[in-house]
Write a structure and sequence with these properties.
Layout (H helix, E strand, L loop, with lengths): L1 E4 H17 L3 H13 L3 H20 L9 E9 L2 E4 L3 H15 L23 E7 L4 E8 L1 H4 L3 E5 L4 H16 L7 E9 L1 H11 L11 H15 L14 E11 L4 E8 L6 E4 L1
């Protein structure tokens, strides 16, 4: 049994909050660079260039990529041979968020109640997903989720008779309705299967997959490729000003479901789709 002190968890989460908000991941940066070369709209090319310039400024001057530094979503793979000491892991994660958002001068965007809407002033509580895995390590992925994109995400309980065509049509519909609002070019996370809440988790988690990395399941990869092609033919383009680069990637995650159900969730990520990863 390996012991990990909660202070180490807080320190890592704090660091990841800042990294995620300051630094565009290499895979996304590379895809935007490639897209700029093939984008057919001159204005679209200019906007993609501006996004790359913004990324450079954020990285070199250590400033947030975007003023909306999001609600902090944290994915935790907790090794079953780890003993967390010194306090609660949940409290430690939230303390890390608190410290990171203060130290990094990141905007605090969380309200304590959806009706009363009083700002918590430290961006806590985080939304935390735990996964118990073999081993003696704790793997943490921090994903600050801005609500320009989050607000355009949707979920629908399709029937099995609607099949794969119904799933694909629904995903394209959601992106079309979102238009320019989620700051395209977007990354589209799609969850299929499970229950209502599980398919939403699949869609959210799918946004963490590196751009250009497809599902290992051939039939799901085919869906991803077709959806990306259909979405980029919508003509929404970078920042919604028209063009051939509406999405950088479509990532689909699937899971077992009930014989009577076909749940589908679409979680849209903006052009930056921020996340940072660390291991203790």
């Amino acid at each position: 049994m390996r012991e990990i002190n909660v202070k180490q968890i807080s320190e890592l989460v704090s660091k990841l909050c800042i990294e995620a908000c300051y630094f565009m991941t290499p895979d996304i940066h590379q895809k935007i660079t490639e897209s700029k070369l093939i984008e057919k709209s001159p204005l679209g090319q200019e906007i993609l260039g501006t996004l790359l310039e913004n990324s450079h400024i954020a990285r070199t001057q250590e400033k947030p990529l975007c003023q909306d530094t999001g609600m902090t979503v944290v994915f935790v793979n907790l090794g079953q041979d780890v003993h967390v000491i010194g306090g609660s892991i949940e409290d430690a994660i939230n303390e890390g968020v608190r410290e990171g958002y203060e130290k990094g001068y990141l905007r605090k965007s969380v309200v304590n109640d959806p009706i009363l809407r009083e700002n918590t002033k430290d961006n806590t509580p985080a939304v935390i997903h735990y996964n118990i895995v073999p081993g003696d390590k704790i793997e943490i992925e921090v994903s600050p989720k801005g609500f320009g994109s989050e607000n355009k995400s949707q979920l629908k309980m399709l029937t099995p008779s609607q099949g794969v065509e119904g799933v694909k049509d629904y995903v394209v519909q959601v992106v079309s309705e979102a238009g320019a609002n989620p700051c395209p070019p977007i990354i589209v996370g799609v969850g299929i299967g499970g229950t209502m809440e599980r398919c939403a988790y699949y869609a959210k988690h799918a946004l963490l997959r590196p751009v250009g990395q497809h599902s290992s399941k051939p039939h799901i990869r085919a869906i991803e490729e077709e959806l990306l092609e259909r979405i980029n033919k919508l003509g929404i383009g970078p920042a919604g000003f028209g063009g051939t680069t509406t999405a950088l990637a479509v990532n689909v995650e699937v899971g077992a479901t009930h014989i009577a159900g076909l749940p589908v969730a679409v979680n849209i990520g903006c052009h930056a789709t921020r996340h940072a990863h660390g291991v203790l």
